[in-house]
Amino acid sequence: MQTTTAMGDALGRYLDLTSQQMQVTARNMANVDTPGFKTQGFDFEGVFAQQLNDGAGAAGLEGMQAPMQDVDGLVARPDGNNVSMDREGLQLAKAQMQFKLGTQLLKSEFSTVMSAIHMDSK
């Protein structure tokens, strides 16, 4: 018996990636004073599209981490650190909005499933 929907799996992956984005942003912010630290990130949209197309279920992707890469085009300070708190603040705000959207869509998905379950009792 299938207990999840394709949309529920996709939203779960979306929320997992959003959570990873928040962790990356927090790590970048925490290292703003670390000499030589380079800002890291990942291609959210590209990784999400790849996960949707790979055909693996949500359980098959559990624990999967997005590939990290240094962010190019940022100005480095004399100590070699290139973390911009302005950029990281925007990244965090974006991730928070994405997470809120994902949870609202997931709530709607579960509501639809519950409506279908209770349809028989009416």
TrEMBL record:
Keyword Transmembrane found: no
UniProt keyword annotation of Transit peptide present: no
GO BP, one annotated term: bacterial-type flagellum-dependent swarming motility
Record key words, sorted: Bacterial flagellum, Cell projection, Cilium, Flagellum
Every Flagellar basal body rod protein N-terminal domain range: 18-38
Localization in the cell: Bacterial flagellum basal body
Pfam families documented for this protein: Flg_bb_rod (PF00460)
InterPro entries xref list: Flag_bb_rod_N (IPR001444), FlgB (IPR006300)
GO cellular component, one term: bacterial-type flagellum basal body, rod
Role description: Structural component of flagellum, the bacterial motility apparatus. Part of the rod structure of flagellar basal body.
Quaternary context: The basal body constitutes a major portion of the flagellar organelle and consists of a number of rings mounted on a central rod.
Family, as annotated: Belongs to the flagella basal body rod proteins family.
Protein name: Flagellar basal body rod protein FlgB
Source organism: Tunturiibacter empetritectus
Lineage: Bacteria, Pseudomonadati, Acidobacteriota, Terriglobia, Terriglobales
